[in-house]
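Worked example 2:
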Amino acid sequence: MRLRSPLLISAALAGAVTVLGITPEASAARPAAALPSHALVGYLHTSFANGSGYTRLADVPDSWDIIDLAFGEPTSTTSGDIRFSLCPRSECPGVESEDEFKAAVKAKQAAGKKVLISIGGQNGQVRLTTTAARDTFVASVGAIIDRYGLDGLDIDFEGHSLSLDTGDTDFKNPKTPAVVNLISAVKTLKAKYGEKFTLTMAPETFFVQLGHQYYGSGPFGGQDPRAGAYLPVIHALRDDLTLLHVQDYNSGPVMGLDEQYHTMGGADFHIAMTDMLLAGFPVAGNKDNVFPPLKPSQVAIGLPASVNAGNGYTSPADVTKALNCLTKNTDCGGYRPHGAWPDLRGLMTWSVNWDRYGNWEFQKNFDGYFGG
């Protein structure tokens, strides 16, 4: 999520697409009962500093319901060995001690908040290509959760972390080891920590909505094998997934269910991208192979907190328009979604630090809209 280049997405849909008549598939996903009906999610720069400045966990305002600690990163791309530590004092003069940090975690939890370890980011490429790497991932992530008393895991795999092998064309039955092992690892962690384990994901549009046009390298090869590569992970874990917040930023134009390209930065982009998650969408243009919709309570919209935080900044007015359209079918502009979802969970942002730098504009807009 930090210092990333925009994804260049170019594709044309093969065949006409429609979602009319698609019946949402029932999901057994457990409700995130501990979360409020509308939640604010933010990443906290915990292991590094940048131009936004360091923010102590204890200083994060109460409006933030899920705080993702950025980042846990691997010792090498394929080791599965995830490490996390607080920002060095030389880089972050105001960093708290480990005991102070652990106390802040407990205080947030006592106030009903969730604190998660986020794995990946731009610099943390993770490829679980072997069962040994899978088992190391489970052990090392579990050790981080236990050490700091965290609530769960956020998967922010970017770059080349997820890529589908040639011939792996069915998102419901993946064959690629890095995908299969990730699914297995997360299920193992969920089984270890039980129903209270909070699982979130923050894929980029390239790995999710682009799957509507292209999936992996395609039946004839030659396509980017990363296209839609998160779909089998989301699908396999939908019953365990607390929240999916796709990054609607650092993205190229993406085709929506209206067969039109939508560009980041305005309300229509968020409406079109979120509609795909809530209505379901044909994968690789095949209307007989549909990625089933998620529950509205499992979905939040991911945005940059400010113009400094990443490409695709959306003004508070346009964020409000997107929310109105998706929850009330008002203010819809050029894109009309396939329903109204008042139970849409909320918003995610990169990041708490950048929002503080911007005088809490993102948080204030969320609070104003949902009555926080």
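The chain has one domain: 39-370. Helices lie at 98-110, 131-148, 177-193, 231-236, 267-279, 316-328, 352-357, 361-370.
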